[in-house]
Description:
By secondary structure, the protein is an alpha+beta fold. 51% of the residues lie in helices and 17% in strands. 48% of the residues are buried. The chain crosses the membrane at residues 18-51, 95-116, 250-271, 277-301, 625-642.
Amino acid sequence: MYPERLTQFTKQHSDTVAAFACGLLLLLGAFALHLNLLGLALLLLPAAYAIGGYESAREGLTTLFKEKELDVDLLMIVAALGAAGLGLWQREYHLIIDGAILILIFAISGALEGYAMRRTERSIRSLMSLTPDIAMLLRQGREEEISISQLKVGDEIVVKPGELIPTDAVIVSGYSTINQAAITGESLPVEKTVGEEVFAGTLNGYGALKLKVHQPPESSLIQRVIKLVEQAQTEEPPSQQFIERFERSYARFIVLAGVLLATLPPFLLGWDWETTIYRALTFLVVASPCALMAAIMPTLLSGIANGARQGILFKNGSQLETMGKVRAIAFDKTGTLTTGQVQVFQVIPASNYSQADVLKVAATVESVSEHAIGKAIVKAAADLNWVSAVDVRAIPGQGILGINFDQQVIVGNAAFVQKYVTNLPEDLQKFASVLEQQGKTVVWVAQGAGGRGQGAGGRGQGEFVSSSPLSSPSPLSSPSPLSPEVLGLIAIADEVRAESAATITRLKALGVEQIVMLTGDNQRTADSVAQAVGINQVYAELLPEDKLHVIRRLQKQYQTVAMVGDGINDAPALAQASVGIAMGLAGSDVALETADIVLMADRLEKLAVAMNLGKRAHRIVKQNIVVALSFIILLLVGNFLGNINLPIGVIGHEGSTVLVTLSGLRLLK
């Protein structure tokens, strides 16, 4: 068992194993050299070269022969081998260690790149797992289980309560609530009935549905999300393209200069060939961009460690620096700026009733409901004394009613409750209007005359009674002879995070030029949340691909754009953004895998800390690059003028590397 697992791990993480082996062999070889065990050292160090440098050599040679280009991978191998050859020639064996260190740095870089690619593949697999593999096809009145890939346009399928919807389709019979969090990210399920579209990967509620497939399964919304994530994650940003162009130009320059330095001086300057080769090899050592590499990675790794201590997980070191360049930020609403948990926001009783009366009566019928609003009401009434009603009927999109103490209980929207009461109190209508303008969902509660306080007892546990979801709902029972009266109303809302407004203010102070909110929720609710947190620009009623398009438009205007989200629906936008940021607790698996940064414990205020770290990292990296380039230029000039020998060149080269490394460690504070 364990040998098999070890073999599988080695295959999947060969780059990591190679880097580890290279480092171990390097340490053992250096120790052997220190003990004057030259034979052992000359066995261990070449092995470190071979194991750590194999992948870089392969990629460098592939680029050379197939693309006719030079890159830094090949340059590093040449520089390392040059150092080794020079060390053997001059019997300065410590130069072999210098070359091995150079190879180890590149081996570690390759391992990190492989890790990032594996994370990307896992995020795609997580998206694919959102849809079931089979569907229940209706054929000649009988149900038949078939693969999703076999579905065709025009097929009719059945989805039972609690099942995932297998593909995008239109409801032809039945009604239910659909949890569309996978697509829109919104916490409230949506009522769906005949003629309305449902999406693959969304969760069916209490009702069975007959659906008609109206487009091929491979064209479903969730499949488009997968393709968008794949495309956005493989597209290289302009900065990455610039770095690659610079690396190849640098490699060509160094190789050309090395060749010229190894051949021309005897003819132009009268050098002897031994001096010429010596200077050329010294050039390869001092021109190696170790200090340039150390100017970046230690700084970014220090920033990553600093962020981890503060609950900020940077999954990609380059994104730490990018975070400091962000000019625009897009926020998802539900689960990001808000908690994502629907709850009772306010209870307003009618005259002669209390808040407890309203909650108890509402809970008697909502206790048998699977709707998120009902669950929020039951949770708010958990400490009160009540039992479930009987003969409960749920009317999708309108409300719910039942019998409690022989009193009729009606809970729902204003239009629904108004069918059973003489009139709605004017003062409560005014309250309801204000709450709705604030983006709250208002639930009215009514009960038969004399029902005040009677939610405290009853005939026993109620049961859920509903008409068949595949047929038309049965007529409602006629109003009770005792005319019901309104007890009050309950406002339901997704609570805004306490730190959201302060975070937006802090980001503006850090120089973010544009902050927008993206949400699949309705415009009124979105505007309400945006106003509460201080965001002026809102994009509402968006599908995942719409969020992606907004990010692309922002990138055209502001170049470096961050996206903060938590849901599957945010994944394409997170992948497309210059830097994607996910909420650690509220975030879906796909969002967490796709994002570059994760705010652990959902502490939104740490976003400003992450940006400040990014700015510091960007500043330190620039300082280190200046120092590294200055050393390289000085060493190159000194080598050409003959003022430095190989040991001094190595000391200068390694010294500059140590210096910029220590500079990068400043970010640990």
